[in-house]
Specification:
Number of strands: 10
Oligomer: single chain
CATH architecture of the largest domain: Distorted Sandwich
Organism: Medioppia subpectinata
GO cellular component, one term: membrane
Radius of gyration: 34 Å
Pfam families: Neur_chan_LBD
Structural class: alpha+beta
GO molecular function: extracellular ligand-gated monoatomic ion channel activity; transmembrane signaling receptor activity
Strand order of the largest sheet: 2-6-5-3
Keywords: Membrane, Transmembrane, Transmembrane helix
Helix content: 25-40%
Length: about 290
Amino acid sequence: DINSQILTTEGWFYMTWIDEHLIWKKEDYGGIGTIRVKQDEVWIPDIFLFNSADVASIKYNVIQTKLVLFNNGWLVWVPHILFKSICELDLTDWPYDQHNCGIELVTWYEDGLTINISADSKLILNHYWKSEEWDVLETESERLSYDISVTNIHYPDITFTMRLRRKTSLYHYTVFIPVTTAVILNLLMFWFSIRSNVRFLLSSLSLLLLTIILLYLGLKFSFGTNTMPYAVRYISRIILTIGLTLVWTTIAHNVQNLNIQLPDVMRRVTATTQWLVVYSDNENSDTIG
């Protein structure tokens, strides 16, 4: 969600650990080497989403899946998760922007002396359902720890990072092509006389088209002042330029239709300027000759 800057991740969280209290010999139990147990029947690590954007997703939003327990004490648990994590976006280069969004998992009640968590691999995207707007370029995992200086206790932390890139094909048709068309229409107005109504029509169409595009972008995204995209700034400046051009063209058109005599001061300035231009031309011609 771009407006609220929340990354929603849904999938399956593969976890394994060993519990020394759950070891048995297969020979003593008829050769049984694995069993399925419920979540409330065994110990489960207290891993929470640290950068959660929703209180409901601080812990796993799990379906009641069972765990697989092996006779050597190993447990395998693959719960369903729905994480909503905070991901700060910099939209300056929109729509060619790329972002690094992380899922930060920590142990909440138990410190690093009691439990040690680690990531054996990156995010597995074998069954990734491709997004219509984003491409996942790469993923990585990193293990860190939070140290509390007073008690000299550290809490392990694992961060899974995804590098996302926005797909731009949609905005080529909805933004860039209309903006280019509006700019071309505005440039065509200079081919017509200032008395021509086509000049006003082209400027008005360009102004209307760019205003609609800017309103569309404003409704679709919630741009902050610090992350205002260059594309939005460009469109807003074009709108300002076309608006000023339209106002100036209207004034010039009305002045030409009026028979107004210039004041004495303006006529003197015009005459002086004309004399300077003529004198400069004569001086240059004498020098050349």
